[in-house]
Specification:
The chain has 385 residues and is mainly β. The protein is built from 3 helices and 31 strands. The strands form 7 sheets. The protein has a 7-stranded parallel β-sheet, with no helix packed on it. A 5-stranded parallel β-sheet has the order 1-3-5-7-9, with no helix packed on it. Strands 16-17-19-21 form a 4-stranded parallel β-sheet, with no helix packed on it. Strand 24 and strand 25 form a beta hairpin. It is elongated and about 80 Å long.
C-alpha cells in the first residue's frame, strides 16, 4: 500500500482548500480528518504547521514522517495508533498536546528535539518506549501529568536542568522497569511521580534541591536502600514513602528542622531496622517526633566544610577517588566506612595537608568518610557514590 500523504496531489489540495487553515501561519491538518486510516506509512509534506486534535487517531501507520515546518501536534493526534513504532520530532515542533501518542502500544522510540516547550498530560501514556531522554530539552517549560505513566518498557528517564520547569503528577507512575532517573532541577517531587515504579533509583532525585515530596510520590519503591534528605526539604505529604521495603539508611544530618509530614508517610517501612542519621542538635527533636521516632536514630556530623580546632577541612569526590584537604592541619588517616559501621578501607599518611583514597571499586550507595588529624581529632562526612 502506498504511503498516505497530506497536502499533495489533487485530494491533498482539495483538503487544504476545504478544510485546512491556509494562512501566513501555514496549513493545519483538521481535527479528526483521518481517523482510523489504514495506510502503513504517513508522510506529512512541507508547509503543514499543525496537526489537529485526533487527526490520525486509531490509524494503522507503522511509521510517520513529519515535516520541518511542523510546530504543534494537537491532543489525541496519534492516540491509539497501535502499530506506530517510531516517531522523530522535527526541531520545529514545540508543542505536543495531551494524549497525543497515548495508547501507541508499539511505539518504541521517540526522538525529542531541543526546542520543545510543552508536553501535554498523558502524552506518551501506555507506550513501549524504553528511554525518555529529555535532558537536552532546555526550552521545556511544562511536562504534563501522567506523561509516561504505564510505559511498561521504560528503563531510563532524564529531565533537563531548567529553572521553572513545571512537572505534573504521576509522570513516571507504574513504570515497573524504570531504573535510571535524572531530574537535576526538581524542587518538588510531584504526587505519584514514581508511584508503583519499584526499581527506580530515586536517590539522586531526593538528594537534589528538593523542598517537598508529594503524596504517594515514591510509594512502592522497593529497590532504594539509602537516601539523603537535604536542608531545603520542608514537607513530605501523605504516604509519600510508603512501602519502601529495602530502605535501610536515611541521612538527615543536613536538616535543621523536622519536615512537615502528612499521614502514614512511612507505612510499610521497617523503621526500627532503618538507621536515621541526624545531627547532634536534632537528635532529641527527631526522637520525640511522631513518624520519625520509630527509626533507629544515630548521630553523624556531615557538614560539608566543618571546623576542627580552627582548621577548615573539605572533601572532593569523583567517580574514582575521594580527597580530603586541610587548610592548616595535618591529615594522618582517611577511612571509608559503610552505613553499617564497617571500615571498608583505610589510607594512612605520616602527615599531609591532602590525602586521597581510591573509591572506584565501591558500589553505589551512602558512605562515611572519616578524617583523622595529627592532634587526634576527627571529622566525618556522609557522601553518596
Amino acid at each position: 500500500m502506498s504511503p498516505k500523504r497530506f497536502q499533495t496531489g489533487i485530494i491533498g489540495i482539495l483538503l487544504a482548500l476545504i478544510h485546512a487553515h491556509a494562512s501566513d501561519m501555514g496549513i493545519r491538518i483538521p481535527d479528526y480528518s483521518s481517523v482510523g486510516a489504514s495506510d502503513s506509512v504517513l508522510i506529512v509534506d512541507d508547509g503543514v504547521r499543525s496537526i489537529g486534535e485526533g487527526a490520525f487517531a486509531g490509524s494503522a501507520f507503522r511509521r510517520a514522517i513529519l515535516p520541518p515546518t511542523l510546530d504543534s501536534i494537537g491532543p489525541y493526534a496519534f492516540a491509539h495508533c497501535a502499530k506506530l513504532e517510531y516517531i522523530e520530532l522535527p526541531r520545529s515542533v514545540k508543542y505536543i498536546g495531551r494524549n497525543a501518542f497515548s495508547g501507541c502500544t508499539s511505539l518504541k522510540s521517540v526522538g525529542f528535539n531541543d526546542r520543545i516547550t510543552h508536553i501535554g498530560d498523558e502524552a506518551f501514556q501506555s507506550t513501549a518506549i524504553s528511554e525518555a531522554d529529555l535532558s537536552h530539552c532546555r526550552s521545556l517549560s511544562y511536562l504534563g501529568g501522567w506523561a509516561f505513566t504505564s510505559c511498561t518498557e521504560l528503563k531510563s528517564a532524564s529531565l533537563p536542568s531548567v529553572q521553572g520547569l513545571v512537572l505534573g503528577e504521576g509522570i513516571f507512575m507504574n513504570c515497573r522497569r524504570l531504573s535510571y532517573v535524572h531530574a537535576p532541577s526538581a524542587s518538588l517531587i510531584p504526587p505519584y511521580m514514581f508511584a508503583e515504579s519499584p526499581s527506580a533509583d530515586i536517590r539522586g532525585i531526593v538528594s537534589g534541591p528538593v523542598t517537598g515530596i508529594g503524596e504517594y510520590a515514591l510509594s512502592g519503591n522497593a529497590s532504594t536502600d539509602s537516601i539523603v534528605l537535604q536542608p531545603l526539604l520542608n514537607s513530605i505529604d501523605d504516604h509519600a514513602m510508603e512501602r519502601m521495603t529495602s530502605l535501610r539508611h536515611i541521612d538527615a544530618t543536613g536538616l535543621e528542622s523536622v519536615p512537615e509530614t502528612g499521614t502514614d508517610i512511612w507505612h510499610g517501612v521497617d523503621q526500627p531496622n532503618v538507621e536515621l542519621a541526624v545531627s547532634d542538635e536534632m537528635r532529641d527533636i527527631f526522637a520525640s517526633t511522631p513518624q520519625w521516632q520509630e527509626f533507629h536514630i544515630s548521630r553523624t556530623t556531615s557538614s560539608p566544610v566543618p571546623s576542627v580546632a580552627g582548621n577548615q577541612i573539605s572533601i572532593r569526590i569523583t567517580d574514582s577517588s575521594l580527597t580530603a584537604t586541610s587548610d592548616t592541619g595535618q591529615i594522618i588517616r582517611l577511612d571509608i566506612i559503610g552505613i553499617n559501621g564497617t571500615i571498608l578501607q583505610s589510607h594512612e599518611s605520616a602527615g599531609s595537608s591532602s590525602l586521597t583514597t581510591d573509591i572506584s571499586s565501591a558500589v553505589r550507595g551512602i558512605y562515611v568518610a572519616r578524617v583523622w588529624l595529627s592532634d587526634s581529632d576527627t571529622r566525618s562526612f556522609t557522601f553518596v557514590k
